[in-house]
User: What shape does this take?
Amino acid sequence: GQNIDQPTEMTATEGAIVQINCTYQTSGFNGLFWYQQHAGEAPTFLSYNVLDGLEEKGRFSSFLSRSKGYSYLLLKELQMKDSASYLCAVGGTGGSYIPTFGRGTSLIVHP
Amino acid sequence: GAVVSQHPSWVICKSGTSVKIECRSLDFQATTMFWYRQFPKQSLMLMATSNEGSKATYEQGVEKDKFLINHASLTLSTLTVTSAHPEDSSFYICSARGQVNSYEQYFGPGTRLTVT
Assistant: This one.
């Protein structure tokens, strides 16, 4: 089975940097996803890591350590619109890639 | 590109009635579509996976006779909640994947179902 753990809620100030951690214990692993979800909306894809290391994409970066079962999403230059839930998800085994989602971290950005 | 739509965006129905939710891939052919359910402040839970022209694969604990899934074409999948009860009230989200063995899936905007 899959066990994915991430903090329930975080707060940060506009313009700051925030790191959202995710740890996982899975019977199989086929990559780690991060999604952003605004309230009442569907998730939008942010990143997919399959190899160890940091991948940077604009203001957002994602890191993966497979040996530690650990990932983080780094958000720089925070904006008010970044207030959302951030979902960590582990991809399924084989060719399925079907992600199993964590509960999500609710990020509140305040002025 | 890669737009997925859902209809309706929200629906209120009475207990005991059935509700059909449509999921369409607008600009690509979806080899696989997924149905998720999300309760407030909870994670997205995969309900079932459907491939065009074949029976859906349901996750453990999801009643296939209650949640009927039809994937009649490469651009349309429907989820019918039969004999709905208040505990079925949730946010239902579909997603679609264009290529087999691809990690990319595109989510629809979701359908908020409220059963009274």
Observations:
- The interface with chain B takes residues 30-31, 33, 40-45, 48, 87, 91, 95, 97-104, 106 of chain A (CB under 8 Å).
- Residues 26 and 87 of chain A are 16 Å apart (CA to CA).
- Chain A has a mean pLDDT of 91.
